[in-house]
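Hi, here's the filled form for the chain we discussed.

Project: internal
Contact: R.S.
Residues: 188
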Amino acid sequence: KRLHGSTAPKCGIGTAVLATPAGAMTFPDSDLSNLRLLVGTELLALDYQGEALSSGLLSTPAAALFKQAVADDTAHYNGLVDLLGKGNVVAATSDDIDFAYPKGSFDSEAAILKLAGRIQELALGAYVGALQGLQTPLVRLPVAQITVNEAQHEAALAALAGRPVLGRAFGPALPSDAVSAALSTYES
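And the returned structure, exactly as it came back:
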């Protein structure tokens, strides 16, 4: 992962800082790694949503959904940053990652909604996958709560794009290496 211009440790989105100063909580490295991946996922969603809103191509209902998603994803990001802070780990920020999107991503509302759906599927799969391996109860509950909201985002985007709102009875859980690889495709 390419991080730039940050005072945060240069350890990438998916790696954990191993030293834990006195007074900090101790989380398993796998929990920290999952939290950092989820932070990266939220940063991607926020960046894309901001670009989409700036495009001026969204209808009133789509813009309202994206504005609500920005508010929700900002709360998710802040909650994840707080959890990482309890382990004395500095989270990546929007200044740490340069995102890039495929050509044509912002050519029309349909194009915006299509990529937003893919990013949302990544986010939901990342959260479900993280839940599978989280060991710390303090981490599991907020991640589960965010997962519920990410599923709501996916359903709302599907409705706007004319796709089925309900998906499979058991949604996919993306392993951390798949999440990391997917995030990398959006980094410039």
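Let me know if anything looks off before we file it.
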